[in-house]
Design brief:
- The complex is a heterodimer of chains A (902) and B (110).
- With 902 residues, chain A is of the alpha+beta class.
- Chain A folds into four domains: 69 residues, no CATH class; 224 residues, no CATH class; 312 residues, no CATH class; 217 residues, no CATH class.
- Chain A has 29 helices and 21 strands.
- In chain A, α2 packs across α3 and α19 crosses α27.
- Chain B is of the alpha+beta class.
- Helix content of chain B is 57%, strand content 15%.
- Chain B has a three-stranded antiparallel beta sheet.
- Classes of the chains: A alpha+beta (902), B alpha+beta (110).
């Protein structure tokens, strides 16, 4: 063994010496042989000839000898790389195009994979993340997805009753206003139970972290900062610990900073400040969510004891569930609700990768994009394969010579494959650079102004392994076929000369056509995909949403934070609305509790005394409180009846304006104006509020553009019960709405300097709801275009090559009287065969695959004929363009020059 | 040149080389000559198989090579048997004898 290693190493590192020795040994043998032959009477010349014949190919023996040395693999590998680099360097432009197109493909693939990795696959950077499980509740009898939210009472019951976790904690995401004055500065906050950091095993970077003692009823506010926030906001000053921070105008004491690299358990949302769960009382005042037994705001993660499996945990949780839910029963629920509540069960699921809303929202789009990018990469590979094929054919002679000198076919294939791996490795290295840049772009894309996404996108082993395997795979993919083809050289044909070689080359390039047809097919699939997403997006953007999103500034104002007493709030809001309406440049102003397409909703059942009116789940209706100016500002026309006005005060009759959908569903065939509907009583035993309908308004989207319009009822904002903490002002302006911001700030400051304000435009709000669709439309459009470009290059390259090979043939044809048009016909026939084959296969492939996109589309079928026709049209036009240039060159072949060529 | 050359069966070359260098260190050419002569010119070892085989045996540590001076005063690489090689030779020899005897028996009786 040792000897073996010694010899191998020697052969590897003292290559020269070993080669010299081998030469010497073989020469010695040869000379002895010659001497022997001479002794038996041959002339020196004849003796040499015979010895050589006996010997066979000297180089072949050497090669076999090298093989036997056992390191020839590494030795020849280095040799192959050197040779490969030289070959690639000889055609720098082609090499660059190949590397860049690979880099784009591999880079995009890496970028998307790294996003998938970060959002879905990566383990939390905490101690033993595989032990973490997320708790959820599910109904024991009804089939429903487990919901992972809990009330504080339930959390306390779970904490006190569980015996399967070595630690368990609850948390809730929140936003805090850091400002002490007017303009809101949002920070990402989390409420954490006392043992959050300890259970996760996250150490402090400074000071101390939350402890169980910090999370007690009636606690004073303490805060823990994240490392990033401490750096950005406090310049990593030691003095920050022990200082204070203002959260929603409440002062909290900073006790410590958590370790770097820990961003919380919700992927996509880094936390800046953590406060204990008990601090909710500080923000909420008397009726806090700590006591509220139907406020589902907490989530729970447990760390299972090492010896216990998830199944065992679920079994045990099932056992303690009745006790837990009985202890947290909401007293004000009706009897049926209470019965359902007691049927709830706890279940757990692995949470090693944390939780993330991004998974639900972007999981499918990211996988679609991954597939799209994979196809682009395949097209790029196909380009390089046909390039290699053409180059292999051109190197026919070189390969024949090497073979004649004793190179084995395997050895030649290895050489050619090395060139391919070199190309793909260069592509991968460049691709990683592209990926870094693409990642930033992707995160920017899925972030919205009001909901920024934070992701730790550092490259990890998994991503690098992914890129490396993609590189090797692509290299092999485009390398194998050309390598096999071009090493199948017939020695005699290769040596015969030009003519034989040309026909040989044409034969050899035959798979090139298939490759190009394959590219055309894949491009068509991508174009159809891109077309579908683009058309869906356009349909969504141009949809009649029932209000005019342009030129409206939305101002969110919170009087509760500004500590305006409840009974004065209505008057203050009204005052502000009047002042805003009077600003110069303002066309109209109104206010409301909800704004459309904001992601917030408020719904309940309504009852109408009519035999045909919907009941049960179907009677669900969506609500909003709006001021008299709201409909005018939103440009939502009132169709019948009246709008709200000064009559509708808090003491007047309860009234509502309904939309067309509600009118159609509940009052089919009758005029709803003047009719009544009832709401559920606020508390059991109280009378049900009765509301009179005074008008009908045009349908408008409520929560998302994709929804079937909800049945919606609007109430006068003056008749709002008590809970009006924050309201939104809508201001329609003549100028770009953001230009109004400072005037609005000044105007509101004249009423009260303490009111925190948030600004955005209605347009922004609507656009933000289309992030997913925009991501898919833009990226699939981009990659569709890229695919088209690559296919065009492929087609152009293949046809140019074929034309070059047929120069002599064309020359002869023309010398014999063929018209240029018939030559054009010959080339175009080649193109047509490839195009028709490719489009046919592509159409079939599209038909099979686009069905998977159904869910992501809006307002059109995945087999939308217009889209498919447009894609085929575009592809054919581009293909003809790509084919025209080589065809023109073919027509201009000068017979004399072509024939003199030899 | 009416040599009755027979190509060596797979695996026997190693045995022949080991046998040939068992008596004294020899260089490659001498090994092939010795095999050729002793076999009454029946067996002929191609150089293309000889040198790779020598190298293979060297790597297995059955023979070892060193540079010496040949009979005609030239530098040449001499191969000699190692202890491991000698054991191997005995083993292979007895295997071969058994095999040859068995084959001969079958050929004679059927």
């Amino acid at each position: 063994m040792l000897n073996d290693l010694r010899l191998r190493l020697r052969a590897l590192f003292r290559r020269k010496a070993v080669e010299v020795e081998m030469d010497e040994e073989l020469r010695f043998h040869f000379e002895n042989q010659v001497a022997k032959l001479m002794r038996s009477g041959w002339t020196p010349a004849e003796a040499q000839r015979r010895a050589r014949l006996e010997f066979g190919g000297m180089e072949q023996i050497k090669e076999e000898y090298r093989e036997a040395r056992g390191v020839s693999f590494i030795g020849t590998f280095v040799q192959d790389i050197r040779f490969g680099l030289r070959i690639l360097g000889r055609t720098p432009v082609i090499t660059c195009v190949a590397v860049v197109s690979l880099a784009l493909g591999i880079g995009a693939h890496t970028a998307i994979f790294s996003l998938i990795d970060t959002v879905m696959l990566r383990l939390l950077p905490v101690q033993k993340p595989e032990e973490l499980v997320l708790l959820a509740r599910t109904h024991a009898l009804l089939e429903s997805d487990p919901t992972p939210s809990f009330t504080n009472a339930l959390w306390e019951e779970v904490r006190d009753h569980q015996d399967v976790f070595s630690g368990v904690f609850s948390w809730s995401d929140s936003k805090f206003d850091l400002s002490r004055g007017r303009a809101v500065r949002q920070a990402n906050g989390i409420f954490t139970s006392g043992n959050y950091f300890r259970t996760l095993g996250v150490p402090p970077a400074a000071g101390r972290l939350m402890a169980a003692a910090d999370d007690q009823p009636g606690c004073p506010g303490v805060a823990v900062l994240s490392y990033g926030f401490w750096q950005d906001h406090f310049g990593a000053a030691e003095g920050a610990v022990g200082g204070t921070i203002s959260l929603d105008h409440h002062i909290f004491q900073i006790v410590g900073v958590s370790a770097p690299g820990f961003y919380g358990v919700e992927i996509g949302q880094n936390f800046d400040v953590a406060v204990p769960v008990c601090a909710a009382a500080i923000f909420d005042g008397k009726e806090s969510r700590l006591e509220h037994r139907s406020w589902w705001w907490l989530r729970i993660i447990g760390r299972r004891k090492p010896a216990i499996s998830v199944e065992q945990i679920n079994a045990r949780l099932g056992v303690i569930s009745p006790e837990v839910f009985a202890g947290a029963l909401p007293p004000d629920w009706d009897p049926q609700g209470k019965k359902d509540f007691l049927k709830l069960r706890l279940v757990s699921s692995p949470a090693a990768t944390g939780t993330s809303y991004l998974r639900r929202r972007f999981g499918e789009p990211l996988h679609i994009l991954m597939a799209v990018v994979g196809l682009v990469l395949l097209i790029a590979c196909a380009n390089i394969a046909s390039l290699m094929l053409a180059r292999g054919a051109a190197r026919n002679k070189e390969i024949a010579v090497r073979k004649a000198l004793g190179a084995t076919r395997a050895r030649l294939i290895r050489q050619l494959l090395t060139e391919c791996i070199l190309l793909s490795s260069a592509g991968a290295v460049l691709g990683i650079l592209f990926a870094r840049w693409g990642n930033a772009l992707l995160v920017h894309y899925i972030s919205t102004g009001r909901n920024p996404v934070f992701l730790d996108l550092s490259l990890d082993g998994r991503v690098l392994a992914f890129t490396a395997s993609v590189a090797v795979l692509t290299g092999t993919l485009f390398g194998v076929l050309p390598a096999l083809r071009s090493t199948k050289v017939s020695l005699s044909a290769a040596m015969k000369g030009q003519q034989a070689e040309e026909s040989e080359r044409r034969v050899r390039f035959r798979p090139g056509r298939c490759i190009v047809a394959f590219q055309v097919a894949l491009s068509l699939v991508l174009l159809v995909t891109a077309g579908l997403f683009l058309r869906s997006f356009v349909k969504l953007v141009t949809l009649d949403i029932g209000f005019d999103r342009n030129n409206v500034l939305v101002v969110n104002a919170n009087l509760k934070t500004a500590k305006v007493p409840r009974e004065r709030r209505l008057a203050v809001y009204q005052d502000i609305e009047n002042r805003l309406r009077a600003l110069s440049g303002v066309v109209a102003a109104g206010r409301s509790v909800m704004t459309p397409i904001s992601g917030y909703e408020w719904n309940d059942r309504i009852h109408v005394d009519s035999p045909n009116a919907p009941t049960g789940e179907a009677s669900l209706c969506y609500f909003n409180y709006v001021s008299p100016g709201y409909f005018g500002t939103m440009r939502s026309p009132i169709l019948t009846g009246r709008g709200f006005d000064a009559r509708d005060t808090s003491t007047a009759t309860s009234v509502a304006i309904i939309n067309q959908t509600l009118a159609r569903k509940f009052f089919a065939g009758v005029n709803p104006t003047g009719k009544y509907f009832r709401l559920d009583p606020a508390k059991p035993g109280q009378p049900a509020p009765t509301i009179q309908i005074v008008g009908v308004i045009k349908d408008a989207k409520y929560e998302s553009l994709r929804e079937e319009t909800y049945a919606t009822a609007f109430f006068p904002i003056a008749q709002i019960p008590e809970n009006d903490e924050e309201e939104n002002f809508e201001i329609r302006s003549t100028a770009p709405p953001t230009a109004l911001i400072s005037a609005v700030q000044e105007s509101i400051a004249m009423v009260n300097k303490e009111i925190p304000l948030e600004f955005h435009t209605l347009r922004q709000q609507v656009d933000d709801s289309l992030v997913q669709e925009r991501l898919l439309a833009t990226l699939s459009g981009f990659f569709g275009g890229l695919a088209l470009l690559l296919a065009m290059i492929g087609l152009y390259g293949a046809l140019s090559y074929l034309v070059t090979l047929r120069r002599r043939e064309f020359g002869i044809r023309m010398a014999l009287g063929a018209l240029p048009q018939s030559i054009l016909g010959l080339v175009m026939r080649d193109l047509a065969v490839v195009l028709i084959g490719g489009v046919g296969a592509g159409a079939g492939l599209s038909f099979l695959t686009v069905r998977l996109l159904q869910k992501m589309l809006f307002g059109l079928s995945p087999h939308d004929p217009a889209t498919i026709a447009a894609a085929i049209g575009l592809l054919s036009a581009v293909a003809l363009l790509a084919g025209y240039l080589p065809a023109r060159r073919a027509m201009r072949v000068d017979p004399i020059v072509a024939l003199r060529y030899e | 040149m009416a040599d009755r050359r027979i190509d060596l069966p797979q695996g026997t070359l190693d045995l022949l080389i080991l046998r040939t260098v068992a008596l004294e260190p020899l260089h490659g050419w001498a090994i092939s000559e010795r095999i050729h002569q002793i076999s009454s010119k029946v067996l002929f070892v191609q150089q293309g198989s000889l040198y790779p085989a020598l190298h293979r045996l060297e790597r297995k540590d059955w023979i070892t090579a060193r540079w010496g001076v040949s009979e005609n005063n030239r530098r040449a690489k001499f191969y000699e048997l190692t202890r491991l090689g000698r054991k191997q030779l005995e083993l292979q020899e007895s295997t071969w004898r058994t095999l040859a005897a068995a084959v001969a028996q079958i050929l004679e009786t059927t």
